[in-house]
Amino acid sequence: MKPHRFAIALAVSAVLVSGSAPLAQQIDLVKVAAQKLERTVQLPGEFAPYQRVSVFARVPSFVRDVHVDRGSLVKRGQLLVTLTAPELAAQVAETEARAQAVVLQLAEADAKLVSAKTTADMLKTASNTPGAVSMSEIILAEQAFQAAQSVRNAVENSAKAARAAADAVKELASYLEVRAPFDGVITERFVHPGALVGPATAGVSTALVQIEQNNRLRLVVAVPEAHVAGIARGAAVPFTVPAHPGVTFTGTIARPAHALDPRTRSMMVELDVSNGDGRLATGMFADVAWPVRRTSTSLVVPATAVVSTTERTFVIRSQSGQAQWVTVRRGAPIGEMVEVFGDLRAGDLVVRRGNDEIREGTRLN
Question: Would you say 230 and 292 are in contact if contact means Cβ atoms under 8 Å apart?
Fold first, then answer.
């Protein structure tokens, strides 16, 4: 008698006849399940300061005093470095003198304007008496008044320009006191008293200090393309750091880039992390438990149901009592289950432990 290779039922046994000793093999069918896929994957992240700036001198000058050093905690507006520039003090005095001189010219122009107006008014009044003044005198007085008015306006504009120039130089001189732009910590000190500093346009571009805001940090995570569906602004995400083993911290998703890096096929996402106690530091690495969520339900089957050969990946479905190979693509693993994509529906029956020896068309009784 020709041996039977498989005889399969819904929860039945398959018998292989080999010689005179039959070997029974249990083959189970399970339903394809549909469920919301929520899981976490471990992604690396790196801390960056919420704000970081290198402070430069605004004007060419010499360093007189440095009031902070690396590790100094500073408040916004706190004096960091005092500079000295004798030529700038001379410019301040010069522009102030010019402004005062123009003010005096303006006072003189005002006096001449009042005199010209008074003369014109008196001539107009005298002209009411026939023959007292000639018309030419009245015209000349009016023209003198208009000329005095024009001179006064010009001097006034000059006074405004001189005052603006003096204020600009004084404001520039105020930059000789370098102050903190925000609350933070000094992470680098680059200069000492006596150093020549100034803007890059002056041929010197040495920074004075570097300050970072560390009471609030940015945790930067590169999220692979396959996991960007889990990005929800405002969601809390746990993470750990090697410096504090056994401690779990939490960050809030704040700034997804909304664009993938074409080289890594990942999206840079920033999490806001509160660091009031200072336990975290910029440059630290973090292990982030990133949430992965699908926007729709996923089909899942036991991982053992998916068969992979050199030609295809498939599951074996029971279709009208016969074995049917259905090509699928693996998705995310979920414990002993795996997400699959293919021509399947929730409730379809598939072989729990698939293998390529169950050929298509095999009768399932």
Answer: yes
